[in-house]
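ok trying again, last paste got cut off:
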Amino acid sequence: MKRDEYAFGDDQPKKDLKDDRLSYAPFSGRLANVIVNMSVPNGYVIGLHGKWGSGKTTVVNFILEHLKKHNEGARDQTHKVEHIDFRPWIVSGHQDLMAAFFKLLSEQLKPKEGKVKGAWNIGMRTAAEGSDNLVDAAATMALTVDPSGGVISGFASNIGKKALKSVLGKYLDTPSLQKAYEDLRNQLTSSGRRFLVTIDDIDRLGDEEIKSIMQMVKTIGRLPNVVYLLVYDREIVYQALDEKVDRVGPRFAEKIVQQEVELPLPSKNALLTLLDEEIKFITSNGDVSTRWQYIVRDGVHRWINFPRDVLRYSNALKFAWPALKGEFDAQDLVAVEGIRLFDPIAFDWIRRNRDFLFDEGRYFIGAEDERKANVEALKASLPAATVEPMIELLTVLFPSQGKWFEGDRYMIRENHAAAQARRGIATEAGYDSYFALRPSVDAIPKSTVDAVFDNLDDEKKLTSAFRTYIGKNNSRGRAMIGLFLSDLRFRFGVSPQPQPTQALLNALIAIGEEVFALPWRGEMFAVEPSGTLRFLLNDLLESWGLEEAGMHLIAAFEHSNSAFMLADIYVDRGRELGVFPSDGGGRSVISKEDFERLGAILMPKIQAAVDDGSLVSAPFYWDVARTWKQLGDPANVKSWLRLGMDRDGKFTAKVVKGMVTQSFSGDGIRYTYRKDPDEDLYDIDATYEAAKRHLEKSKDLIEDERSLLKALVDGVGRIRAGTSLDPLDETEAR
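nice, full thing came through this time. structure:
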């Protein structure tokens, strides 16, 4: 990253005409030309109106640049237009404003060199012999308004007693305010000098100060050969001048401002070009999708109207992106930061409605009326002009909730996998990351998922990355490896689809036993990690296609020594081909010939695991036993299972795990024995006796293992007694 990549804008107005990007320089040149050619024996007031952040000060600076060029070519002083920059916001009070103005005028009028430096210089040589009559007139006017130098002098507390006495003496010798004002007008007329007084940012003042400025310009500020350029936002000034009845503000302003000029609106294209240059660090690699076009149309185009909008928006993105880069979708950040800055009501709704957006809390099931009422309340709270584009934008950002935002008009614009893969605001991980300004602690960092796809050919790195999250749960109790595998599924569910690799397939098989060994936590409406792993493996094989999938799977079987995991994959493929019974079937992802080759590779691995004792440590034996029966001698399988159950309660629990169903309720996880298993593999009487014995005598069984054995004992006992397999069935019947 370049050091200046996130250089923040400072909101400083432009001064150099060469920096003009919004066509303000030609407008400023024409206005400067008008000022140069004006004859204003009684003064003139021009108002320059523009909204906050529209570039008014830049236009003023450009006018002054044009005047500077004019003055450089002027024949004499009377052909020049001298500039006086009056900044009223640094003083306060009606009298201070007037005194400050005339002090500034006297400073401007005094000679640049010579013995006379003006009545308000540090030395306080007030009304010195030989002073310029025009300077004297301006200084006298200032002293008449504020004889002490006042707050605006900035040095009254530092001057000597003699100087202060001189000032007061000068004031006592001056005529009245009216006479001083007439003297100043006469001196200005006779001098032939011309002035442009700019008063910028009037709309930054308080209401009373705005009134004072306007009254000053209207009364004693109206001077010969002086053009005022008042710069303001009309609505703010009108409101300050308004007396709350009859809208007198506009009429009062019209009596003061003789010509009001509208600041030209910069073209939308010019502003968007500026924005694009400022935020290219975040948009340059994005896809120009239909979704992005909606964000631009309903958001960015609507938000960017003035130069300051570009500045605020780009600075906000420069602040947020370094914290979220790699963890949050770039285009969503452009959208959400825009909503935060320019649609704060909608942003607050997004921030307060996490449950609505992710179907949690009272929105977990149903609540249709509440949802509709919530959206209607949102619409009612938005400015009328923004309702339609804002609802469109929310639908783009939260596609799964689009039917609530748009009702019957809703059309699916993005599938769930694509939204999840982007890690945008519509994902829990993205939402939490955005509002915390860091990766969500309850999700796999997006950068970690990205790293998988950056290293698809490195089996070692992939395996290490997966194992980092095995056995870890987030704050909600969700298995992190399950979330990781889900994120990978989402990535393979988008278009264009990433190309899977042999290394990825090998790595997933390598972690298989560890994933299947994780305890089931009974999450409602959530697939356990082992199920997600099965789905992901199937996704990869489907992505390759029939012929290529078989080739990769054969290579994986040759590479792996996990008899358990290979048997699980073998049974899944066998179900698809009708070799093993299946409730759902499914489309075959490999050919029958490749399936047979897998069996030929697998059987020796099963036998080796039996011989070295490693098969005992498998998470459970159901699919291993079926595979062994399919490829070898069923009697050997049955003998191995029976011997293991005779010796060990934990072994017995692994056998039973394939004979029960599991469910979850408020009371926790419940196992239910449904029917007797395959007689070729299991002696149910021997299994029953082993389970009873281990329940009574084995001291090292954990709670889950005891629950498994008890479910079998209870179930077999009920079958023998001729009652229901499930005790809950009898309870409900009663």
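cool. The radius of gyration is 41 Å. The longest strand covers residues 226-232.
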